[in-house]
């Protein structure tokens, strides 16, 4: 069923955003630079219009930042509860509503879309949106498979659409970009080892079958992924906790995601690989090896149990690169963040800390004034973290240029995460050829670079 309010004049206003600004007060207080203030000062007729596709928790957290730069005019979700909540929270009840993203991308009065659906829908909606002439801000991970990434990149090049991936750590100037600048300036020397901590994956008991909520279109929620029965149950010990193969917990099912490896991995592996490049070293991956633990048994890469979370809970994986002097260790059992170890020192960075002797040494030997700006490709550095990431996206739209989290560099990183997942599922070393972007010497592993789409949910090219 499609639910709509047809009048485009019902756009969420800037005034409406300010009334609900309490949920994003930290970012609304960000001191913006002149270009960003000019964008905010545009008249309603000049401001761009966008739609939010996927109005769950992440969509409602991130779209208020986008509303600082453009008008949110429409919401799309397959769960009526999400639509109703999002409409009230984000748009004073005035948004156009639909359960079908095609209603969104076919509209001429929408300039770009924000895609905040579960992972398994990202590539299909993004590709069809680009083909429909829409720019896009798409949450990570961009794809469910390696081959989807190849198609996304092809369509982006073909259409010239601007796509910003929601890896907002690339727009952190006080921590992540500063860490990369320290590396780029040679303060820790040639990199030897990186340790990427992304925490353990989710655990569940056996989850009972349940009735699909009447507000949820479960078939459309599954979309391109295999048909499966809906499961949901409360935690017997905690009323505020549940287990499901649907909302929020989709990331613990390989059918819909890649677990921690594509969840936090898409953030921290990203910064780690940028660090290798910043050191002037070759970050082309050549292999992934290591160990992993699951709560279900696997055979030929497929889980044999369908009622428990099945992505890797624990892992100790080593990624080798074309520069044979550096190795990346991806683990679940160390501090969340990235440890860079070089010939002359080491630094650790995450969203709360940037520490290490090379950081302390900056007090007496500061970085060059333009060191962080060089890491940010010389683009305007407006705000910090997610607000800056949206500002960069708008800058790229205005200038028809590549944003800081472009699909091409994102997919090189994400392929490492996908290869790590294949390694975990098969329990053996995976060899990779970057030139051809293919798994080598392992027919079964190579076949896992793609997945079949459920009939009726194929990508429409």
UniProtKB/TrEMBL annotation:
Listed PROSITE patterns: TAT (PS51318)
Residue span, Gfo/Idh/MocA-like oxidoreductase N-terminal domain: 49-166
Gene3D superfamilies registered for this protein in UniProt: Dihydrodipicolinate Reductase, domain 2 (3.30.360.10), NAD(P)-binding Rossmann-like Domain (3.40.50.720)
Database matches in InterPro entries: Gfo/Idh/MocA-like_OxRdtase_N, Gfo/Idh/MocA_oxidrdct_glycsds, Gfo/Idh/MocA_OxRdtase_bact_C, NAD(P)-bd_dom_sf, TAT_signal, TAT_signal_bac_arc
Domain Gfo/Idh/MocA-like oxidoreductase bacterial type C-terminal, chain residue ranges per copy: 207-458
Protein name: Gfo/Idh/MocA family oxidoreductase
């Amino acid at each position: 069923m499609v639910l709509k309010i047809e009048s485009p004049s019902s756009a969420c206003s800037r005034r409406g955003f300010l009334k609900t600004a309490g949920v994003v007060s930290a970012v609304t207080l960000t001191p913006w630079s002149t270009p960003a203030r000019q964008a905010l000062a545009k008249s309603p007729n000049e401001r761009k219009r966008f739609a939010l596709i996927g109005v769950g928790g992440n969509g409602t957290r991130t779209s208020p930042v986008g509303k600082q730069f453009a008008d949110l005019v429409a919401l799309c979700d397959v769960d009526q509860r999400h639509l109703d909540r999002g409409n009230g929270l984000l748009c004073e009840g005035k948004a156009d509503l639909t359960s079908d993203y095609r209603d969104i991308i076919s509209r001429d009065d929408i300039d770009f879309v924000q895609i905040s659906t579960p992972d398994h829908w990202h590539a299909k909606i993004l590709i069809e949106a680009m083909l429909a002439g829409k720019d896009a801000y798409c949450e990570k991970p961009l794809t469910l498979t390696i081959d989807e990434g190849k198609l996304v990149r092809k369509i982006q090049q073909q259409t010239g659409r601007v796509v910003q991936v929601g890896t907002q750590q690339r727009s952190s100037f006080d921590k992540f970009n500063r860490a990369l600048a320290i590396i780029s300036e040679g303060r820790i020397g040639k990199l030897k080892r990186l340790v990427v901590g992304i925490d353990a994956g989710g655990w569940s008991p056996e989850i009972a079958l349940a009735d699909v909520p009447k507000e949820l279109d479960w078939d459309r929620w599954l979309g391109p992924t295999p048909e499966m029965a809906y499961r949901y149950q409360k935690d017997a010990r905690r009323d505020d906790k549940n287990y499901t193969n649907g909302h929020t917990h989709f990331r613990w099912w390989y059918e819909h995601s890649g677990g921690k490896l594509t969840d936090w991995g898409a953030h921290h592996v990203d910064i780690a690989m940028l660090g290798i490049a910043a050191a002037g070293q070759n970050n082309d991956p050549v292999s992934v090896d290591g160990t992993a633990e699951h709560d279900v048994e696997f055979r030929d890469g497929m889980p044999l149990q369908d009622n428990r979370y099945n992505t890797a809970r624990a892992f100790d994986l080593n990624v080798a690169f074309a520069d044979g002097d550096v190795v990346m260790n991806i683990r679940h059992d160390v501090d969340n963040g990235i440890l860079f170890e070089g010939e002359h020192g080491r630094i650790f960075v995450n969203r709360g800390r940037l520490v290490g002797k090379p950081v302390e040494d900056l007090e007496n030997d500061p970085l060059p004034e333009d060191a962080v700006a060089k890491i940010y490709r010389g683009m305007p550095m407006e705000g910090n973290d997610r607000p800056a990431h949206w500002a960069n996206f708008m800058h790229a739209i205005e200038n028809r240029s590549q944003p800081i989290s472009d699909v091409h560099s994102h997919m090189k990183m994400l392929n490492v995460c996908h290869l790590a997942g294949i390694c975990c599922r098969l329990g053996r070393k995976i060899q990779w050829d970057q030139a051809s972007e293919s798994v080598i010497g392992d027919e079964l592993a190579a076949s896992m670079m793609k997945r079949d789409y459920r009939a009726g949910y194929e990508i429409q090219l």
